[in-house]
Amino acid sequence: MRHILAIESSCDETACAVVRDGKEILSNIVSSQINVHTLYGGVVPEVASRIHVENISAVIKEAIDRSGVTMEDIDAIAFTQGPGLIGSLHVGVMAAKTLAWQFDKPLVPVNHMCGHIYANRFVSELTFPLMALVVSGGHTQLVFMEDEWDFKVIGETTDDAIGEAYDKVSRVLGLGYPGGPAIDKIARQGSLRYKLPLPKTHGRFDFSFSGLKTAVLQLIQREERKGEEINVADLAHCFQETALSLLTSRTLDAVGEYKPKMLVLAGGVAANSRLRELLPELMKKYPETKLVLPPMFCCTDNAAMIAAAGEVALRHGVRGSFDCAADPGLLMPGEE
Ligand code: KG4
Ligand code: ZN
Fold first, then answer.
1. How far apart are CA 310 and CA 23, in angstroms?
2. What is the pLDDT of residues 174-205, one digit of tens each?
3. Contact status, residue 209 vs residue 140, Cβ threshold 8 Å
4. Ligand 1 center to 137 CA (angstroms)
5. Contacts of 276 (CB under 8 A, 6+ apart)
6. pLDDT band at residue 112, thresholds of 50, 70 and 90?
7. Per-residue DSSP letters for 41-55?
8. Closest ligand 1 atom, residue 112 Cα
9. Is 216 helix (H, G, I), strand (E, B) or coil?
10. Cα of 90 to ligand 2 centre, how many Å?
11. Is the CB of 11 under 6 A from ligand 1?
12. Mean pLDDT of 266-291
């Protein structure tokens, strides 16, 4: 048996988890700062770092207490090295180093996006080759994995991430922060009243969302000039249908070309109810590729997913030293 204690603090969640053999969650504590950041309409980095500092010790203690194991049983300390907010990451990195030093445990630095992919281990054994659609507030990527711990980014956004587009469109529609869940909810009551252009990209598997966001903004301004009132539910619905149509069409093209055994969805936007409805329907076209949707509790940031990825990293010889630092722009392992 292998026990990993993992720490995640890349954005606005202070989290610690203890996971057995990469897939059995013994404890998973997440302290969200969302109520504070909602007041500002988005994550304020300086505020986020300060709250991480205040909460991290209690979160770690609770994760250990609830796990039913002791520090003696822990085989390694995994932590999110990046990508994320530098100040936020730094708090988790320092906490992980302190624990590793105090209890003499190996340190395993983990890429946050690999964590999102490996969250799917909590629902299914992963089979390779595998395609991951990684959709979060900072990333929109198609990652092809020939094997375990082998990551090849075959497509990504050329501008905004899809979660970022949800958050920005939510703001202009007056729906607040975080935008994803707000648009997801109100779009259910809307219809295809407005026409928005499908974004164009150069690469076959690339994404682009900034043009769509601008199109929403221009449409609002145009209607305002005409003295017309915007139907928020309809516009949220049209934005979501257009964004998800680009996302799913590129993903299906990639599945058609790479023929993976499995397609996994990963990241905060994986919580989107419309995307979770569309993908199983569309993937009927490729019955030989198994679709895995992560459970809601591990779509948004948590430390259990970092432990799941950390366990694989540990087996593959990934080790951190006391010199290793937070890296806000960290790329996937093997990415140039
Ligand atoms: O993975 P995550 O928690 O943090 C990052 O690593 O970025 O993702 C956060 C993003 C936010 O942009 C949020 O609006 C989006 O995920 N999100 C959603 C939904 N829930 C969260 N987007 C669309 N629909 C949702 N239900
Ligand atoms: Zn995330």
1. 11
2. 999 889 999 999 999 999 999 999 998 989 99
3. yes
4. 5
5. 265, 270, 293
6. very high
7. TS--HHHHHHHHHHH
8. 6
9. helix
10. 16
11. yes
12. 98
Mean of pLDDT over the chain: 96
Q: To the nearest whole percent, how much of the chain has pLDDT over 90?
A: 91
Question: Is pLDDT above 80 for 263?
Answer: yes
Using the mean position of ligand 1's atoms as its centre, give its distance from the Cα of residue 103 in Å.
35
Q: First and final CA of the chain: distance in angstroms? A: 34
Question: What is the model's pLDDT at position 14?
Answer: 96
Q: Is 208 a pocket residue for ligand 1 (Cβ < 6 Å)? A: no
- pLDDT over 70 percentage in the chain: 100
**Which three-class secondary structure state does DSSP give residue 28?**
strand
**Is residue 336 over pLDDT 80?**
no
Instruction: Ligand 1 pocket test: pick from 33, 300, 301, 330 the residue with the most ligand atoms within 8 Å of its Cβ.
Output: 300
Cα separation, 294 vs 302, in Å, equals 13
Answer yes or no: are the C-beta atoms of 133 and 247 closer than 8 Å.
yes
* E strand residue ranges, the chain: 3-8, 13-20, 24-32, 76-82, 107-111, 130-135, 140-145, 152-156, 262-266, 290-292
